[in-house]
Amino acid sequence: MIIHCSFLEESPVNSTAHLVSRGVTDVEVKAGGRAAEEANRRRLSDFPLHRRFCLSSESSSMESSVCPFCHLTLPFSELQWHANSHFEDEDKEAKDLELANQVQIASSSCSTNVDRISSLIGLQTRGDYYHVNGGLISLLKNCLELEARHNSSVSILSGHVDHFHSLPSVDIGWGCGWRNIQMLSSHLLAHRQEARKVLFGGSGFVPDIAFLQRWLEIAWERGFDPPGAQHFNCKVYGTGHRIGTTECASLFRSFGLRARVVDFGPKESEQLHLSVPGSTLGQPVTQRNVIEVSGPMDRYVNRQQGLKRGRHSCDSSGKCSNNSKGKNEGARVLVDWVWNYFSDKGLTVSGSSRVIVSDRAPLYFQHDGHSRTIIGIQVKNQQNGMRQFNLLILDPSERTIALERSLKTNVGWQKLIKRGVHTLKKPQYQLCYIDPGIASREELEELKTINSMFFEL
């Protein structure tokens, strides 16, 4: 089987296959002929990228063909499109190079290659996920509204989020951190125009895990989170290394996003970095400074920082009180924080509007051994006057199709998504949230050091 190929100027495709530049004659590439294909590749590499691959009418009757560049066998009808995909448009190449130069900053312990970043922007592929018509958040909103008719609950949700679940033989057992980053990214790309322009080189889509690993390596090379970079020796691509909250923050910060970290734990863990991946509680971990940060959470943070030494809880109105130590009191500090995060701009409930879609991004939610994504929170007023809170969570270990089925039928979704205070039994937790806006160059330098806010459980 012989395929004739040629490169033509930007003009309608010519049915007569020939090479029109530099006096090069027709090239015949025999399927399976590696030497001939390599020779063809070397000769074709001299051609400008704006030229295009086309096929002669002699091949039109063939059912399948072999790409002369990557040797992939595919239907003849798809060969021209596939071959052209090997060549980037000159304008796009220039744009990718410009983006690469924009993100290139002097590194601290590793070396960043501008060409590598440029290639990454053009070559990255979309992460696979099960698409839910209308979106899971919309289905969940419907279920919460039906529930609110009977228990007068109030729920706050983030906007659109695609659910990325771990796949057998791909990332089961280690990929939860990457999947949560994908979930957060899907929200940011859908709701924040400024994030869409910078995330993943402006690609407009969520990359698969392999390319997220590449982006994290580049973040380290540029000087973000030196302790994390040292822990992994700047290398995660192609591995099954587990990551945590600081890796999530490093990746997003490297694009100029204001990712913040919050620690919850016992007093003795205040100066410890919880999410060094692979570590277990009780092992030596990297020290972390506790600092104040600017942003929409200052109102709640400042109120709490003076209360860390005692056991306190706060309601949604901002009132805090000393309480005797209770079974779930420590976890209540975390839940209070989440409630204040989603309702920070004030919560107004009128008429039948008992489910509110906030402009808040989801939260990366880490504890020892696993991480999930918090997409909202629900509160119910009980008969005894107390308020019962439920975190609303998407878990990468749950199958998306199971979530969709349970929400569409309004059966069993509570067990998959709701998590009450009584379920929060781990001694330490960590969150990552993303404030709006893009950091300036000066701020970007500050973001390279990942500090956290600490709350005692």
From TrEMBL:
InterPro entries: UFSP1/2_DUB_cat. Residues 306-327 are annotated as: Disordered. Residues 152-432 form the UFSP1/2/DUB catalytic domain. Keywords: Hydrolase. It comes from the Eukaryota. Residues 315-325 have a biased composition (Low complexity). This is UFSP1/2/DUB catalytic domain-containing protein. It comes from Hibiscus sabdariffa. Gene3D superfamilies: 3.90.70.130. Pfam families: Peptidase_C78.
